[in-house]
């Protein structure tokens, strides 16, 4: 796997105020092996050293993905977060994560992923083993993060379920929503996928854990936050229409309901 792994320090979409986080922690991502790539989008490693500094709280607008997080004594599988999630970093530490493809966790669990939304599971509830042995093997690799990602990949290669064709279908639809800004409504996503709206909604409930409407809104808010970070959002009416909203009031309402700040407040906070 070492020959396949590539890393990057780009924080990417969904991480709020990324320029502030850049100075507080590092984020590296590694692709899965060919065997696990049907189910897993990538592995990620976050490291920080804030000894002698104040703790730092990082807020994230979640993606429509289930994650396994390997962390000392708190290794768990996390469903999609319907709102933002905040993570307090202090002292020195690191975590290793698995970002499943949209729908990619379902074959391991065989239960509607919507049951896991805003919830978490211990890995023993899914894989029938204590998390401490995996934690120990992974977290001893602090100075060899490629090996940590490799160990987690091995864990899943040893436990691969049968490939479910709906995983590939759901992933393609979600990535299509992410990449095609003309998809602004659920009927747009249904037309793109060739599925009836109700079929699409049932598929997302079982495999993704959130609705197609949620996914569309979330990716548009990711884009809005990124534009604000890059100082490309000065006209709220134009931005709202570009993102598929009928007016700026609905965009501002949705942004504040998820982020907890209005767009103006978010920009001011970035400049502090």
From TrEMBL:
Return the Gene3D superfamilies for the record.
Homeodomain-like (1.10.10.60)
Q: Where is the HTH araC/xylS-type domain?
A: 167-269
Under PROSITE patterns, the record lists: HTH_ARAC_FAMILY_2
Question: InterPro entries attached here?
Answer: AraC_XylS_family_regulators (IPR050204), DUF6597 (IPR046532), Homeodomain-like_sf (IPR009057), HTH_AraC (IPR018060)
| Keywords recorded for this protein, A-Z | DNA-binding, Transcription, Transcription regulation
Protein name as annotated? DUF6597 domain-containing transcriptional factor
The scientific name of the source species is Paenibacillus mendelii
């Amino acid at each position: 796997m070492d020959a396949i792994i590539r890393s990057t320090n780009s924080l990417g979409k969904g991480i709020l105020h990324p320029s502030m986080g850049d100075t507080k922690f590092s984020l590296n991502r590694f692709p899965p092996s060919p065997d696990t790539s049907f189910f897993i989008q990538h592995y990620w490693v976050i490291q920080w050293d804030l000894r002698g500094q104040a703790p730092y709280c990082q807020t994230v607008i979640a993606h429509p993905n289930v994650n396994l997080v390997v962390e000392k004594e708190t290794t768990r599988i996390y469903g999609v977060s319907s709102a933002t999630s905040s993570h307090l970093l202090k002292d020195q530490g690191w975590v290793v994560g698995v970002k499943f493809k949209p729908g990619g966790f379902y074959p391991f669990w065989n239960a509607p992923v919507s049951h896991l939304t805003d919830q978490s599971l211990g890995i023993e509830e899914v894989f029938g083993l204590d998390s401490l042995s995996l934690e120990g093997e992974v977290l001893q690799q602090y100075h060899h993060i490629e090996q940590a990602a490799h160990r987690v990949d091995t864990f899943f290669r040893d436990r691969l379920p049968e490939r479910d064709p709906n995983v590939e279908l759901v992933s393609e639809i979600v990535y299509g929503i992410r990449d095609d800004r003309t998809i602004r409504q659920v009927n747009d996503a249904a037309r793109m996928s060739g599925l009836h709206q109700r079929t699409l909604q049932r598929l997302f409930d079982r495999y993704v854990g959130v609705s197609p409407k949620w996914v569309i809104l979330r990716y548009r808010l990711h884009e809005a936050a990124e534009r604000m970070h890059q100082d490309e959002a000065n006209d709220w009416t134009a931005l709202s229409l570009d993102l598929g909203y009928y007016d700026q009031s609905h965009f501002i309402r949705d942004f504040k309901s998820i982020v907890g700040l209005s767009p103006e407040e978010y920009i001011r906070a970035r400049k502090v």
